[in-house]
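Researcher: Last one for today. Full complex below.
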Amino acid sequence: MRRFQGWYWLLLIVALLAVGMLAVARGAVSVSLAGVIDALRGRGDPTAIAIVRDLRLPRVVLGALVGAGLGASGAALQGALRNPLAEPYLLGVSGGAAVGAVIAFSLSVSSDAMITLAAFAGGIAAVFVALAVARVGGRSARADVRTLLIAGVIVGAFANAAIMVALARAEPNTVRGALWWMMGSAADATWRRVAWLAASILVAGGALVYWAREIDVLSLGDDTAASLGVDAERAGRRAFLLAALLAAATVSAAGLIGFVGLVVPHIARRMGLRAHRPLIMAAGLIGATLVVAADLAARTVAAPTELPLGAITALLGVPFFLVQLRRTS
Amino acid sequence: MIEFRDLVVSYPGARQNAVDGVSFVGARGQLTALAGPNGSGKSSIVKALLRRADITRGSASIDGRDVRSLSYAELARNVAVVPQREEAAFPIQVREYVFLGRYPHLGLWRAPSREDDLAVDQALSQAGVEDLADRDTDALSGGEWQRVRIARALAQKSPALVLDEPTTFLDVAHEMGIFELMSSLAHSGLAVLLVSHQLNLVARFADTIVLLDRGKVATTGSPTEVMRADTLESIYGWPVVITRDPAVGAPALVPLRRPVRL
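Model: Here's the assembly. Have a good evening.
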């Protein structure tokens, strides 16, 4: 196994900054790198300043935050659930958030903040329903983390059914809006949305980093974790909730962007990281870079048509995952 | 010292108590073996000690302190356990793995000190796995992995050690190696509690055997006192004879054949 070197951190940060700069510069109107730097400092062509500061930069930062949240969430979740195939959307979060957003759309809510809020509330509600289902399904009051995972999948499936019922009766415009949202996109980035997502990620991601050593121990199994002084049920539930919070925040900000939470932790592990504190942080950086790059591709590959970001990440993620699966088997 | 007093563990919905009034002591400097048929309550006793199963009545204590009065971290500093199953999903370097045994001392943020490094070095050498320190856990054989797990428990530096079926799936040499290690650890001053099906090996190595039957202590004492044909026959429901091990003179169990007529 490769050992992680200190300078890899520099590599990860430089990669994110480079992809970020490129993503700010490229698009329907391309700006030179020097132009981008000038615009960021408020100098030069006012059109370039407007494009860079008000259109591209919030979009790129939003994409980076979404990727960071999904990567960190996936890394924590795979460790806590001891399952390399676990990913944040399996918790029922995505389905719940989509239900929240679709309800908002079908009530003709147009306020951006309200849709974000509805999606976030839907995602969190789904997690709590999953927790309740797991408690009913589990043999004791203390629900096993794996029961939680299955409960999440069930809640997600139910949410999808609810969305289809809701959309079957909806106006064509609502359907289009909801569909676009479900495919995931960073296009509607605003600084307010960026700030809201940044705050959520700082809180939930910071908490995961704080409790990361507990996840190291938890990844050895519940009995071993208990023998090392960790209340396995409580620690598992905490990791589950924080990971769900991160995922719900990203989904409410940019819709469903699949495969990032699944694939990114594997890339971080391939770099030689095992302990969850650095693993979660590296997964955040890698996820950010990946989503910014995918969003750049979504904007430019078939320009002027913009492709759905969630489809791009899935197109990149599936082959990567197949290669990974072949290597491990 | 590990002590159980009139311990009762019952699971919700079960008709019988999994553990039904068990009392015994695992003293320091001794290898105490907990044996009995499948479902006789061995694992539930370990779970109760770890607070993984609720104690319905009675108590489990370590050095006189009830486990329910200890925090999880305190408990882990007082008793180290090598559970029967461990499903680590991701490989990790052996040294890092053994270092996780320091978690009860380090907690979430404290940086490892010289003392922690020493404890890990010592644990690796006691378990005889220094040479494996740089390997990954998925590159270990079954015997090596069990020793590495024991090293992790030893790194906890707790006065009591519990091992749940540590030699399942191991060949004769590795099994003997583990039993020798447990015996030395006990005689170095630890209170070692071993859950095992291997009655013959237990009879050679253990100082005391506690034989369970359907949640109760059927008999307890030295190997010679416990290894009696009539007792074992009634507990296991299978005809047996007890002989003497020709090499060392320890009592040995020989199950007789009872052919199935088709």
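Chain A has a mean pLDDT of 87. The CA atoms of residues 205 and 323 of chain A lie 29 Å apart.
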